[in-house]
Design brief:
This protein has 6 helices and 3 strands. By secondary structure, it is of the alpha+beta class. It folds into 2 domains: 4-63; 66-140, no CATH class. A 3-stranded antiparallel sheet has the order 2-1-3, covered by helices on one side.
């Protein structure tokens, strides 16, 4: 899934040097942007006003690089924000429920009962020596793909 932002850019052309100066502001594409306020902010950053004949303001959508999206996700896991959100939506963390999901997945994948017992036992050890944030980072890094 591609993630986009709206990039607003203001620019002013100098009559003296014919150089162009730029200012930028990014907004979330799912929020209603106040174009006039953004234009005023960009003009202010360029020490001019939105009405100046040498000033113009435009915008475009740009896709965030996948590496940037991955880094943001990893930092979110590291900060525990994803875990907190999951708790708010699904309820508190529960090791037994997690193991239940894992066992259901292993059964669906066709693993034999002995292998399921080994994995379940190893998961208990992981719960004891790995924080939720560390496990989240491990998953985001793509331990198994």
């Amino acid at each position: 899934m591609a993630y986009e932002i709206e990039l607003h850019y203001g620019f002013e052309r100098s009559h003296d040097t014919y150089e162009t100066y730029h200012a930028f502001e990014a907004t979330d594409i799912e929020e209603e942007a106040d174009d006039a306020a953004i234009e005023a902010k960009l003009a202010d950053l360029l020490d001019c006003s939105p009405d100046d004949e040498d000033f113009d303001c435009k915008s475009m959508r740009i896709t965030l690089p996948e590496r940037t999206v991955e880094r943001i996700r990893a930092e979110g896991y590291a900060a525990g924000r994803v875990g907190i959100l999951a708790q708010m939506i699904e309820g508190p963390w529960n090791n037994d429920a997690c193991k239940g999901y894992a066992i259901m997945a292993m059964e669906r994948a066709g693993l034999d009962p002995e292998m399921i017992r080994k994995v379940s036992s190893a998961m208990t050890d992981c719960f004891d020596d790995t924080t939720v944030a560390e496990a989240g980072r491990y998953y985001v890094k793509g331990a198994v793909r």
